[in-house]
Known about the structure:
Layout: H1 2-12, E1 22-30, E2 40-45, E3 50-54, E4 60-66, E5 69-76, E6 80-81, E7 86-90, E8 93-103, E9 131-134, H2 136-139, H3 145-156, E10 166-169, E11 172-173, E12 183-188, E13 204-209, E14 217-226, E15 243-256, E16 259-281, E17 288-314, E18 317-333, E19 345-362, E20 366-383, E21 389-392, E22 396-399, E23 405-423, E24 426-442, E25 450-453, E26 456-459, E27 477-480, H4 482-494, H5 499-504, E28 511-517, E29 520-539, E30 542-553, E31 561-570, E32 582-592, H6 597-605, E33 611-617, H7 628-631, E34 637-644, E35 652-664, E36 668-687, E37 714-735, E38 740-753, E39 773-774, E40 781-790, E41 795-804, E42 808-809, E43 828-829, E44 839-841, E45 844-847, E46 855-856, E47 862-863, E48 867-882, E49 911-914, E50 926-937, E51 978-986
Parallel strand pairs: 1-8, 8-49, 10-13, 21-25, 34-37
Antiparallel strand pairs: 1-4, 2-3, 2-5, 5-7, 6-8, 9-12, 10-11, 12-13, 14-15, 14-51, 15-16, 16-17, 17-18, 18-19, 19-20, 20-23, 21-22, 23-24, 24-29, 25-28, 26-27, 28-33, 29-30, 30-31, 31-32, 32-35, 33-34, 35-36, 36-37, 37-38, 38-39, 38-40, 40-41, 41-48, 42-47, 43-45, 43-46, 44-45, 48-50, 50-51
Amino acid sequence: xKFARCLFAMVLATIPLCAQTASLRGQVTDESGAVVPGATxxxxxxxxxxxTTTASSDGSYxxxxxxxxxxxxxxxxxxxxxPDPAKIDLKPGLQIVNFLLRVAVTxxxxxxxxxxxxxxxxxxxxxxxxxxxxxxxxxxxxxSPEDLQADLQAxxxxxxxPNGGSIFVDGFSGGQLPPKSSIRExxxxxNPFSPEYDTLGYGRxxxxxxxxxxxxxxxxxxxxxDAFWNSRDPYAEQKAPFRLKEYEGAVSGxxxxxxxxxxxxxxxxxxxxSIISAITLDPKTLAIMDPFTGVSRIPQRRVxxxxxxxxxxxxxxxxxxxxNLTRADIQDSGIGNFNLISRGYGRQNNSQMVQATExxxxxxxxxxxxxxxxxxxxxxxxxxxxxxxxxxLGSFNGGxxxxxxxxxxxNSYEFQNNTSTVxxxxxxxxxxxxxxxxxxxxxxxxxxxxxTFGGGLAPELDAxxxxxxxxxxxxxLVNIQSIEQYRRTLLFDQLGYPAAMVRQLGGGxxxxxxxxxxxxxxxxxxxxxxxxxDDWRVRPNFTLSVxxxxxxxxxxxxxxxxxxxIGLAWAPGGSAKSRPRSVIRAGFGMFYDRFALANTVTALRxxxxxxxxxxxxxxxxxxxxxxxxxxxxxxxxxxxxxxISTDLRAPYVMQTAVGLERQLPFNTTVAVTxxxxxxxxxxxxxxxxxxxxxxxxxxxxASGLFPLGNSNPxxxxxxxxxxxxNQLLTNVNARIxxxxxxxxSYVYNRASSNTDGLGTFxxxxxxxxxxxxxxxxxxxxxxxxxxxxxxxxDVRFSPNINMSSGPxxxxxxxxxxxxxTLFNGRPGIATDPNKAGLILTPYGLxxxxxxxxxxxxxxxxxRGPGTVMVSxxxxxxxxxxxxxxxxxxxxxxxxxxxxxxxxxxxxNAGIFNTGGGGATSASANRRYTLSxxxxxxxxxxxxxxxxxxxxxxxxxxxxxxxxxxxxxxxSESANNRRLELQTRLNx
Length: 987
């Protein structure tokens, strides 16, 4: 608390001003009054020296420590027409120049070119390590919302700390990606230490949508894909069915002189193919089918409606309202990979979202923005068949889906109020965010029960399925795979053997679990975040940014989440009259992660009262499911309970970064940044009632001495995790000319932790040895490159290349080694090569039944292969028709009134609105454009393996059974190389 007070006092001490120099501030808006973040503002003095800056998230820009005199200032942004340059006479003190930009007649053909290209700057929001995608850069990304999100998260990648990238849509958290055609700009890693955001800046993805236009314009589009064009998935023996039809229509225009609208409609009809790649048994002979592959069709239908209205309430007040309706219906979901057809279930999702943003220009130097978001999501799942689930670890999942008939209704509310104000060389920003979530959930999860088979030590059988005996007449023991344990169970059960004999011969399920009780419950959660920050232009070549953020939430007892932020940018040798060529940038920040409502729901549901989780190791009643009442009479029955630790606190990371940004020839900037991330109190779980060391006999279910006096597992959610990460990030942004541009990055990354999230349990409940190791985010190398190349025949090539080295994976034994009902035990490194049951692997001779003295294999010891994803979009545009005369100027030209401005006033507080007018290129006079494109994903047909199987009792140990990125809620991943024909008519 003392630190927070000292920091706040330091910030307040920066308020006094001594300004005999001049400063220029303002805001960039479009004709609807919406702010234009990322707009480029260029200031040219009488001698021709040019300084540029980029508008921040609220559309504001600033130049400080200027000499008095005559200047020319101009603003530009993609898809928007800038006015003629404004000539101003700067006097000592502050002057305000606001810019009004207008939507170009044909956005696909008009290019507003920043002649200076990318440039380095000491502005806090203009770090060269940020990646900004707009216009042609967006064309290289997928049209599919799921693939687009995967591309963006891969781009953010290991830069995002332990939790991956976060997405903000028009400033709102937890946003659903809008249709790509309605996206104006995407930014990654901009202003990473801003106190305005709760999430890590390295990995933050900000999406900005398009406003309405000043004239009626529209787009009609159709995408088509077919399996005939595509290549077979490498994990299937035959090509999976695939058919894609996506329809899109969009229209925008004025409602009246104060309002405009933008409406986007989409319908997706995708018949995706599910690919089963598993190890199963022949139903007649019980022979192991290695491997078994199959394909089936999954019908998917989705409708998306997204209207937006921009309304200029008054010259200084604008209102933006955006609505999104998404309805999705997927049949036979859940099939594929290890899941057989019997596991299928129908899935429906209905989502509605309302966003409202009011922007108020308060006098000459302040802007206030109020945002409100409401999201309602209604999901349901219905299993195709109602029967117990069968899980043969690392081989196949059969039986019925454990979902049963489940449903969930979630309501999310978010309110924000942020204010930006300029005082001389200081730009202050402060605000508050309040969020609330409610959920009404019905989940009969695992109410039909699950039989699990895991393999282990068992007698070796001869060709007649009889035990092989050694010289002393004892059975020879070998380690069998999970599918072999399942085969023996079925075989000896058909032969009529009693359950005890089946288990002696290596058969029998390893575990049976079933839930019962009340399937329905409701819960809620709220959190509050407040921040204050100051960007202080100490000198023309030095900016200091300081800030403080505070967060708290309900459902956990943690009220101390203060997050200081500090950043600096220094341009050695820079001055007010010269553009800097190099900038040294550094920063530090603390970032907190919220404890999710879903975790609270889990603890409430499985508290032993609302629902009961029954677990029986080595059950003797397969395949019959006993009644719930009879389970209490089985001695080996355990009732698992999940709880939240009373001292759980919000996880947080402390991130430090220092980097060098350099302006290069050919309108190119490069940024090299070193970032260190140290995370504390990360979430993990453990069984605090596991049998005491040395007291559990794996051959006797529920045996041992238990700390709580009973054998019931108590799974505690706690915040005891540790995370450390070191990265070297290199970013290159280039706009060679108006026809060629590209963005590239390379990240070297090392990340270590003792947890990969709340689902992480330590292998040995009483031994932390080996838990600290490579984190799931420990992807050592990642390369990203995208760009746009326009040719003289109006053909555009948009490549997108994403390559990365392999992630780590955990190696387990597929058995409950410690009596905690978990199958996460890791093998030992064998010291006696003659011990029975050892397994030879690429990682050495491993012991699935480790004994005292053996070193346990560290967590995430395995390492998977890398991925190479090369995509290309080739588009040809035809222009025809005449648009006629240009549109009339919007109200409030230069020196007049308009959005974000007022009547012109001279002196130190003079306000100018620069809008309307401006020449357009010849192609902008075309009334219609027709674009025909072919989008090719995984152009090289490279096999990119998905998650690696780490269970050493699985026949697929060390291998994948699916491609990377397979599955998902709405999938288009049936084929390896995918081609998609895209057509767009713009009018």
